[in-house]
Amino acid sequence: MKKFRNLALVLAAVTALVLLPASNAFPAKAADPVTYSVKYVSDELGWRFQANTSTFDDSSKGQDMYYLLQDIKDGDLVVIYNDIDTAKNLNLGNAHLSNVTYTKNCRSAIVYAGGVDDCYVLSGATGTINCDVKNAYVYDAVTFNFNNNVESLSLYAADQAKSNLGVVGTTGHLTFSTPPGQEPSSVFMDYYDFPANTLRFFDGIFQPTRAGYKTPEEHAQQQAQNPAESAPQTQPSGSDDSDEYDEVPKTGDSSLPLWLLCAAAACFAGGLFLNRSKASKAL
Amino acid sequence: MIYNDSDRKEVCRTQMKKFRKGLSILLCCAGAVFLAGALFLLFRQFWDDRNTRNTVNELQSAADASREPAPFIPPSASPGNTDAPGPEPSVSPHATPESTPTPTENPFRDSFLANSDMAAWLQIPDTVISYPVVWTPEDENYYLRRGFDGSANRNGCLILDTDSCVDPLTTNLIIHGHNMKSGAMFGTLNRYEDEDFFREHRTILLYTEQCCRSYEVIAVFRSQVYKKSEQVFKYYKFFQADTEEEFNDFYENIMALSLYDTGVTAAFGDHFLTLSTCSYHVEQGRFVVVAKETECGDPYLPLETEAP
What we know:
Number of domains of chain B: 1
Radius of gyration of chain B: 29 Å
Oligomer: heterodimer
Structural class of chain A: alpha/beta
Order of helices and strands of chain B: HHEEEEHEEHEE
Largest sheet of chain A: 10 strands, mixed
CATH topology of chain B: Sortase, Chain: A
Number of domains of chain A: 1
Number of strands of chain B: 8
Helix content of chain A: 10-25%
Structural class of chain B: alpha+beta
Order of helices and strands of chain A: HEEEHEEEEEEEEEEEEEEHHH
Strand content of chain B: 15-25%
CATH architecture of chain B: Beta Barrel
Shape of chain A: elongated
Strand order of the largest sheet of chain A: 3-2-1-4-6-8-10-12-14-15
Distance between the termini of chain A: 20 Å
CATH superfamily of chain B: Sortase
């Protein structure tokens, strides 16, 4: 039985080494959401993180992002800090995060994630987010780009918009109002159904033409007439598999030699293991 | 024949030994096959890289040789020029007539003559990117896995999109190139993700048959090839702007997508050069560098004409 177990282990190891890298076969599962604070540390020339805290303690260096990418999962929260002026890419993996917050005056951070429920962009922040966002909350003057769809975008400012803002995907609902809790409260804008790549603010000036969005009345009317069409059509991240891609030259490079080398190493290791255990048995 | 327990165990042990030995040999054989395959592919890649480098070096050195300045000949020693009067000093406030630039020989004349599919030579100074660009409107993918001489080569050539054209010049020239792991072709293009790299390499040169066009990088971004039905901004669909609205649509989109602010602006009438290569951040991802034309150099002599 022991021999069979050894054989099965070797075969399983070979299979795992050859097949698993290509597929994310072991997704992380954990119960409670974790809050990560992430900061670009110029001494380390890279992003570092601290877990279970929303503030970044500068006295400790924090951990390498490699470990965050191993642990991050759906529902986690990420708080971003950056003092460096040059744009820095921040890869948060493919997890669907419950909250991403660009802190006050956070410099240019370009975030890649699998999706975000609530995205907070605080006053003075600069950045870009590359995934679908369910609810976005933007405070005062920011320079920010949503590169995918936003279901609901709420802008907050005392009197007038000052942001440079763009949404490359569709926007379901835009509101612009005074910040929550401020009295007297006012709602300056309340519009619906912006097609892809139309919602922009340049220096606070609202760019879309009147034909490019719907008022609450028009939206309600359309919803009453045809509820199925009332939702904005999701554009950039749609997954119509039956459709074909545009014809553009495929300019990638093959990784086949690397995979073959890995497979060869695994096979040789397996063979060696069997030989060695045979030899040790003989002794 | 009746086996007792110890005999049965012995038979079982012997069979297991054979099985293990067989499996061990099988695994080693499979490993040898995989290793041979990997080495073959790596050798082929090395060979292709070597061929590409040799071809490009030959063409480049021919161009460098033709660019070397001609030895200076004093006017008095120049035959047929002895009677030419020197410029008269003038006190009258007449505007001096603009001197027409003297056409010079195209430094890549030999390359253009060697392959009629060559549309231009792309060069990013102080980088390894210095390659011929081919244009085959009848079959865009012809040079995708062929070298400049038409032989099979996994590096392929830089390809000018079939809907782009250098003469007459379209608003946007899109050049596709392989993102090779060896760094060949556009294998190092994604270094533009780093803003410091952009600051040191903001100029791109495109030597066409007519002149040398100088470009300045205006936007750097990641994008992707979308499905035909998707109504989103597709940088690879923009070639000609006949109206300001069309121009602004492309311009605003690339500026919005750009990873950082290059500080360069453009206006209707400007021309763009778009360099596109594969990227692996999403399925069908692309990494894109867009540059704006800043200067068109002096015209070159027609290819058929040899420089005096």
